[in-house]
Specification:
This protein is 43% helix and 24% strand. It is an alpha+beta fold. It starts with 7 loop residues before the first helix and ends with a helix.
């Protein structure tokens, strides 16, 4: 059976998601989508030019955040404690990272948990508005 990522319309959906995130997220300077199954950055839009190696590292960093060894151990421990052994659900859905100049928000897609939207905003962003807008956009695109 073909996965949703193999369908012809998936690429269009990803591009639409990136474009909408870039325009609707407050103070957004970049948006992208990472496929953690392949470790690839599927699409991105940014206001600045970034070296390709930086963009490649974004996909790897997203993998580390969501599927690093310790994160997986924590999720497995919680599943075991809650009697959910064998469940594919993930506990970490959103991760907010602040650096000196920007704020990064990583959000798992609802339908395909191994696809993550990434939004980078100026540090001055209202985090509540950022979360609300990105959640709305992700929900509407339903990847």
């Amino acid at each position: 059976m073909a996965t949703k990522r193999m369908t012809a319309g998936f690429s269009d959906q990803v591009m639409s998601l990136v474009k909408t995130l870039r325009t609707d997220a407050p103070d957004c300077v970049a948006a992208g989508v990472v496929d953690m199954a392949t470790g690839m950055l599927l699409a991105y839009e940014t206001v600045d030019n970034h070296p390709p190696e930086v963009l490649d590292l974004l996909a790897g960093a997203t993998l580390d955040l969501y599927q690093g060894r310790t994160v997986v151990m924590i999720e497995d421990l919680w599943k075991e404690r809650r009697g959910q052994v064998g469940d594919d659900a993930h506990y970490f859905q959103e991760i907010l990272v602040n650096s000196d100049h920007v704020t990064h928000l990583f959000v798992r897609m609802t339908e395909q948990q191994d696809v993550v939207a990434v939004v980078v905003c100026r540090k001055s962003v209202n985090v509540g508005m950022l979360l609300a807008q990105v959640r709305r956009v992700v929900r509407e695109h339903n990847l």
